[in-house]
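retry 2 of 3: previous attempt timed out while embedding AN7. Reduced batch size to 1 and resubmitted. Inputs unchanged:
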Amino acid sequence: MGIEGPMYTCPMCGEPLTIVYNKGYLKGRALEGFRGRGVWRYSPMLPFEGDVKPVSLNEGDTPLHRSLRLGGKLGLEELLLKNEGLNPTASFKDRGMTVAVTDAVRRKASRVICASTGNTAASVAAYAARAGLKSYVLVPSGIVARGKLAQAVAYGARIVKVRGSFDEALEIVMETVSRDGDIYLMNSVNPYRIEGQKTLAFEVWEQMGGRTPDWLVLPVGNAGNITAVWKGFKELTEVGLTQRTPHILGVQAEGASPLARAFEMGFDELVPVENPETYATAIRIGKPISWRRALAAARESGGSIISVSDDSILEAQKTLARMEGVFVEPASAASIAGLEKAMEDGLIGDEDSVVAVLTGHGLKDPDSAIRMGVEEVEAEPGPEALAMALGV
Ligand code: AN7
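retry 2 succeeded.
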C-alpha cells in the first residue's frame, strides 16, 4: 500500500515546505493550555487533530541547568544550559522524530529513510523500531562517531556507508524518495521534523517561568534546528504567550561554515563548502538544506551566525565537562565556543541572559573525550603503590 501524500519540498522552487497555521486557530488551540509532558505536552501547537497515537519514547522535558561556574568565568549574569543530550537517544533529534514517525504511521508508511552525520540515524532507527517500521540510514563513510553508529546497529537499521559527504548522501536520499513514493523521508526537509523540534522553544519559555532569554545559542549543520527553534519562538508571540523573542545565534565550525560566511557577507545565496572539514563531525555539512530559513532566523531575530575553530570547540567541550559536570559531544560544545566568541566581539553583553543549547551527549563520541588528554595511571593493587599513584 502506498503512503498517503507526504510532501517535503515546494514543486515550484524546491525549498523545504513549512507548516503554517491560521493565527486565530493556533491561538484558540494554545488557549486550551498545555497538559502532559515532553514534546506532546505542546500538542495544541502541533499539526494533528483528534485522536493521534504518538509514537513516543518520552522525548523532551530535558533539564535547563543554571550554570554555576562557566557563566561567571565568561562574566555573564545568567547562563542556562539546555541539556538535549538527555533525550531518549541522547540528542535533540528525538523531538522531531517522535512527530515525524507519528506522521509516517498515520500515512501508513512501512519504510523510512534518512541521510545523517550520525544523530539523525540513531534517532530514526529508534523511532522506526518503536513504530515497527523498517529504517534505512545513509551515513558518510568513516566520520560517524562510534556511539551513534552503535545505536543505529542496535536498533536494527539498515546502514549504508556512502563513500562521500553528508551532502552527497542527502542528495541520494532525496532522489530515492522522489522515485519511490513508498519510502518516507526523515530528514529535516520533512516539515513534521521541524514541528517537533520547535517545542524546544516552548520548553525553554516554560522552564524560565514564562520568560524568554535575550539570546539563544545553538550549533548549526543542516540548519533544521535553528529553523525550528525560531519558528517556535515566533509562534509563542503569535498566540500572545510572550512579547519578546530571543536573538538567535547560530554557530558553525570554521571548516564547515557556509552560513556564517553568507551572514557576514550579507549574501542571499549560499556558496556551498565542497569539502567540509571539522572535528565536530555532527555538523560537518557544506550545503545546509535549510540555509534560507537559517539566514532568515538569524536576521529576523536580530541574531547572527558565526564560526568557531575546532580548537575552541574542544576547549569548550572540556571546560563544560569540568566546570559544570555536563559532558557533550564536540558539535554541542560549539554553542559554548560561539558564546565565548560573541562575548569577545561585543555581540553578547555581560547583562544578557543566555540559553546555550547542548544538542548531543558526550557518550555519542567517546573518542573525542579520550583525545582530551589522559589523566590516568596504572598501579599494583597495594596501599603503597596506590598512594604513590595518587600522589597522596
Ligand atoms: C549534536 O544527525 O545533521 O542544524 O544528520 O547532531 O539541525 O542540522 C546532525 C546535526 C547540532 C546541527 N548538534 O543541527 C545528523 C545531523 C548535533 C547534531 C546539529 C546536529 P541541524
